[in-house]
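User: Adenylate/guanylate cyclase domain-containing protein, Rhodococcus oxybenzonivorans:
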Amino acid sequence: MLWTPSAERREFANSGLLNDLEGTARSQRISVLHQLVENGATIDELMRATQDARLAHMLLEAALSPRSATYTLDEVSKLSGVSVDDTTRWFRAMGRGISKRSSAEYSADDVRLACLLTDYRELGLDEDSMFATVRILGRNVWAIADGAQSLLQDQLAEIGRDHPEDALRYAEELKRFAKFHTQILAHVMAVNLQQQIKADATDEHTPGAQEVAVCFADLVGFTALSEQLSAADLGQLAERLDTLTTAVVEHPVRFVKMVGDAVMLISPDSAELCRATLDIMAAARQEGLPALHAGIAWGTAVPSAGDWIGRPVNLANRIAAAAGPGEVLIDEDVQRKLGRYFPEAYESAGQVRLKGFHDRRQLFRLRA
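Assistant: Predicted structure for Adenylate/guanylate cyclase domain-containing protein:
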């Protein structure tokens, strides 16, 4: 419905949308309501949103929605050159919702997402691996968004309750926040890809190369936990593991970093690293943390900007993923070093196939 400004204000007032508001607060609320009407909101929707203190949420949603043309799924398919079935599979893999084919609910960004599938195919990438990678990305993007929402929800609740007129300014901050996270993701992904490529080329002849034992220990079932706990609670679990590890680790073992819910340790002494890992597992049980599992590997690695690069880093990570709850698995090189002095410290865990490695690996289980 088209109203004159004065008629619109009367309608707002008659509907109780301006109750108890005077002066500047009243003018600002009229501005908020006007923008929502311009975006298609009805008076009934505004009344319900006012009663539920959701005006700010409505304004944020409108401000963050794409302003460009919108497309149906068929139109996205035509513009991208990707079939409707493949577009649907691609979007679902990355966690993008699927609308009815007749609904024009997709933006130019969605068209670009669909075009990525064509780009990847032109690179000759394996289709199954490509979709698997995108599913991982989709799950983690949802986790990042959940973490961002937890970080901002208290401020949003205050705005929604007391200052809905501040929502536009807040929307701009959210856009900047999203852009900042995009930059972080791009940087972290580039650095990690660079490190993995460099790791494959690292050997004893690489400048700065050292023989070290590497350990990864992380929470078992972290994906399931992420579906049960808030991002804030998950963050507290990781923080507790960080604090506990810092307290336990002593020279010559070094606490390198946290990677999500995992701790990475390194040492030139494999026996000391094994001992420290078992101590961390025991301390975690005493602290009531979810069960940990860990993997330890020996090999050539290179220090790089506070981190370490090399095959034992990747191998330890894969071994940890293969370990059961409360279990510490080690590779043959670590076992041989322990066998000289601690022949009773381990038992065979059999031949295990590890992701990213062609042959099965003989692993051993540390005894507590």
